[in-house]
Amino acid sequence: MGTREGAIFLMSDYGVVDEFAGVLRASVARAAPGAPLVDLTHGVPPFDVVAGARALVRCIDHLGPGVVLAVVDPGVGTDRRAVALRVAPGAAARTEVPAGPWALVGPDNGLLVAAAERLGGIREAVALPPVSPAAGAERSTFDGRDVFAPAAGRLWSGASLDSLGEEVDPGDLVRLPEAVLAVGPGSVQAEVLWVDRFGNVQLAAHLTHARQAGLGSDLVVEASARRFAGRLVASFADAGPGQLGVLVDANGHLAVVADRASAATVLGVSTGDVVVVRSGGAEVGAGVGGHRIPAAGPGGVPGGGVPGGGVPGGGVPGGGVPGGRRSAGWTGPEGPTDGEGT
Q1: Which pTM was predicted?
Q2: Using one digit for the tens of pLDDT, what is the confidence trace for 76-101?
Q3: 181-314 in CATH: which number?
Q4: Which of 33, 60, 124, 212 has the fewest beta carbons closer than 10 A?
Q5: Where in the chain are the domains?
Q6: Inter-residue contact 315 to 300 (CB < 8 Å)
Q7: Does the domain made of 7-172 have the CATH classification 3.40.50.10790?
């Protein structure tokens, strides 16, 4: 690891109303004076480790070198481990992605592992010691400030991983369950991974799954015990008024979208629900299965909000790109179209 390389990237569920995020930044700055700090988001839903892990995966390809400090930690003060991970250098899972973060720091509750594996795998892991008595052993509820931030700062400043704590087997780290995904002839059944602030519904499925299922241009979207007509689109605007579209979003996932309206509101889904996308569509009728898409309110979100929330505040890139940017699509099972991509 190089000294003073890249930035320190911060993610948490601390929000911006209280002082927690600011104190986290201050603690990092004390441990690593001059380190560039990048706030990915502090709007992960409180205690939602799964949402935080997925947001981190969406971000990780785009960060560049440095240290990730992520805190979504409902087990703070318990016997859950605090950990620092070093990823395998030069082993990025996607070779076209520039070198990314080389270390991640946070709780051992599943928050970090998927992102680390996205970067190429975990080379080393250590358990960070709790707050020292000199720092005030009675303070056990702000490990972001007292444990994780100092560790991240030291790593960025050039400390070796083994100087921070006791080595642990990467195979013993907590991992989150896989999302629901089933592919069959003419259908893809997938869990909703994320509902962004525009109401776009990101699914646990990719273009390869659509091809495998043989999905065509006319689709049926099933959710909340209802069926809606949909179609393959290359951009949000292509969905058209009163229609649902399915596209490949900025993170490479299939997503159900609507033009300047909330697809999540139409479908009645939130994160963790399951959506089925099938070939067909004509038998459902025109429009969105007879359900009128409500007019967009402020920020393009009908009704002033999106069920499930995902990561509010728009602090995490991807998962639906406003402004009508195009996304790669497919022409049935034959192959992708020539969308611009994002």
Answers
A1: 0.79
A2: 989 999 999 999 865 444 445 457 89
A3: 2.40.30.90
A4: 33
A5: 7-172, 181-314
A6: no
A7: yes
